[in-house]
Amino acid sequence: TEEEEAFILTFNKGWRREQTRERAIQKLSLLMGENAASKNHHLHNHHQVFDISIDVLPQNGSKCLDDDGRLKRTGTLWTASAHIITAVIGSGVLSLAWAIAQLGWVAGPAVMFLFSLVTYYTSSLLTDCYRTGDPDTGKRNYTYMDAVQSILGGVRVKFCGFIQYLGLFGIAIGYTIASSISMMAIKRSNCFHQSRGQNPCHVSSNPYMIMFGIAEILLSQIPDFDQLWWLSIVAAVMSFTYSSIGLGLGIGKVAANGTFKGSLTGISIGTVTETEKIWRSFQALGAIAFAYSYSVILIEIQDTVRSPPAESKTMKKAASISIVVTTTFYMLCGCMGYAAFGDLAPGNLLTGFGFYNPYWLIDIANVAIVIHLVGAYQVFCQPLFAFIEKWANQKWPESYFVTKEFKIPVPGFGPYKLNLFRLAWRTIFVISTTIISMLLPFFNDVVGILGALGFWPLTVYFPVEMYIVQKKIPRWSITWICLQMLSMACLVISLVAVAGSLAGVVLDLKVYKPFKTSY
């Protein structure tokens, strides 16, 4: 009933006053029967923010509530796949031609395929950690950090949180920069054609970063992941759009050239020095690793999935679908881009086609990139938003500013629940990422560092360690040794990728001018 649901939600707000608890428990006992009420005595002395657990609700509880007392999850295999594709196929797909150019026709596709296998395997391990204990009825872990705390605990929880949320903050900055580059490309392309090539059409990135920031401030007021399904689907469609255009243009250029460019070993010595080739190869590893890193938000996506069947089964299918789709697109876009440009493959595939016709098609691709990044920004930032808001509710459970929600009627959509703390905190977050993007417009290299640093702990180390504990795998068994070898190999890759990205930052610093970036 609506009354039952209202009281359950009051509990989930985390009120800790004894009188409030007593009144809520008494009311729940009337609504749900004496049997449920008799099991609630353990809540009286609980000193942390709590949710209604399976102990509070009868096994055949309300149709609108899940086994943890929260509203029924509605996510499906397809919405989960859309979330993953939105997170994985970012604008980074356009840099894969450059990455393959550094590694060559042999190592480039091989490394990409290897990363896809590692990402899928570790994602499968991570899906088994959504519930602690039994995969069907165990305690739910709502976030990546919850899973680490529940299964591993200790200082590793703080390390995980620091790496995860720092990475998400960096991604938000990188997406702001990438979107402004695409918007500037549209402006310059149209200006170039209107002036028939007479105007160099220099454009500042700052206004476009501000426009992107305003859009994100509005969209960031969507309360949680479960309500982002439509934005993820739109973003996934956009990612296919610009990837397909980039692929088509690459095929067209190969046909025009009449040959496949490139070599087995990558960019030739002479075009770059031996030292530059080494650093570029390391940086290419980081670019490919970062392109596949979505484990950081996998638990949060899994928490939107309905059950039965078990959430882990649905997520494993979603991960397999998403990895197959993204790897196919990565291979096609990266390889055709390299075949089209050879050693001169650009950092952004679409910019390699310059201002030549069909310029309107490149404009469409850049519009699709912007729309996709608008959605991907939200998909990546929601876990960080939720973490800070949960912390604030624990810290100030009786604060009117933090906990009060105002219902604002929205014609055709039902009431919108406005929370003042959410409005203020999320707005400040978006403004800060926008300002940093304007101050450090070469931040894509720094994001590469964050991505390389985050790849090993978040995509490999924690999933492997949690799986070992969850499945009680004996130390020094064959399975344990293989998992540890996988973890150490990925650590080495992450370290060399960090070294390559640092070299890129050093080069960018030589021409650094804050707030004065134009193209």
TrEMBL record:
InterPro entries: AA_transpt_TM (IPR013057)
Regions crossing the membrane: 77-96, 103-122, 162-186, 228-251, 318-339, 359-380, 423-443, 449-469, 481-507
GO molecular function: symporter activity
GO biological processes: amino acid transport; auxin-activated signaling pathway
Keywords: Amino-acid transport, Auxin signaling pathway, Cell membrane, Membrane, Symport, Transmembrane, Transmembrane helix, Transport
Regions annotated as coiled coil: none
Domain Amino acid transporter transmembrane as annotated: residue spans: 74-506
Membrane-protein topology: Multi-pass membrane protein
Function: Carrier protein involved in proton-driven auxin influx. Mediates the formation of auxin gradient from developing leaves (site of auxin biosynthesis) to tips by contributing to the loading of auxin in vascular tissues and facilitating acropetal (base to tip) auxin transport within inner tissues of the root apex, and basipetal (tip to base) auxin transport within outer tissues of the root apex. May be involved in lateral roots and nodules formation.
Name the UniProt record assigns to this protein: Amino acid transporter transmembrane domain-containing protein
Taxonomic classification: Eukaryota, Viridiplantae, Streptophyta, Embryophyta, Tracheophyta
